[in-house]
Write a structure and sequence with these properties.
With 186 residues, the chain is α/β, with parallel strands linked by helices. 15% of the residues lie in helices and 30% in strands. It has helices spanning 31-43, 128-141; strands at 4-6, 11-14, 20-23, 26-30, 54-57, 60-62, 65-67, 70-73, 78-81, 87-91, 94-95, 107-110, 172-176, 181-185.
Length: 186
């Protein structure tokens, strides 16, 4: 079964089979794929005459930060998920899908946020080579990247240190600049 639109009533029908199972009774709707499916329906012979289903603002870079896409269902269209006792996570974009969903037993989980950004690099601000070096430093020092790094580098690229598993400060000198990560012994 596929996503359909009842054009006369402006209802977008989403079957459970078109959702991605996350675990148990939790599913995911990829909003970018949803947008593409709706655009295809809109361009079909049945939908070409109908009011526009959605507005889309693609990825936008503002001050060096790539903001996530925005998908908005417009012109009175509503969304109905196949009835059942399950939850749907709306993923991959900010949207108003939860606001225009027809209420039934399905729980809709929207993750809209003003701070939703698109991450293109493996770690914030690091290129692949820098990330590889950081992983090397974590491994070398025995540091836990989730909670044991006390200081790596200041904003202006000055020296930084990594705290090891036994809570001793690693005596390796770490120098960071805009292009490279270098390691030298002190």
């Amino acid at each position: 079964m596929a996503i359909t639109v009842t054009w006369a009533t402006k209802v977008i029908n989403v079957p459970q089979a078109d959702l991605t199972l996350v675990s148990g009774s939790v599913y995911e709707l990829d909003l970018e794929q949803f947008r593409q499916d709706l655009n295809a329906l809109q361009a079909s012979e049945e939908g070409i005459w109908a009011d526009t289903i959605l507005e889309h603002n693609t990825l936008a870079t503002v001050s060096g930060v790539t903001l996530a896409r925005l998908i908005e269902i417009v012109n009175g269209y509503t969304v109905t998920f196949e009835d059942g006792q399950y939850a749907v996570n709306l993923e991959g974009a900010n949207s108003n899908v939860a606001d225009v969903t027809n209420v039934n037993q399905v729980s809709i989980r929207s993750f809209n946020t003003a701070g939703l950004v698109q991450i293109e690099t493996p770690a914030a601000g690091l290129n692949t080579e820098q990330l590889a070096m950081l992983r090397y430093l974590w491994k070398k020092s025995g540091a836990d990247p989730l909670n044991r790094i006390t200081h790596y580098a200041t904003e202006d690229g000055q020296d930084g240190y990594i705290r090891s598993e036994d809570n001793e400060v690693d005596q390796t000198h770490h120098q960071v600049d805009a292009d490279t990560v270098t390691v030298t012994q002190q």
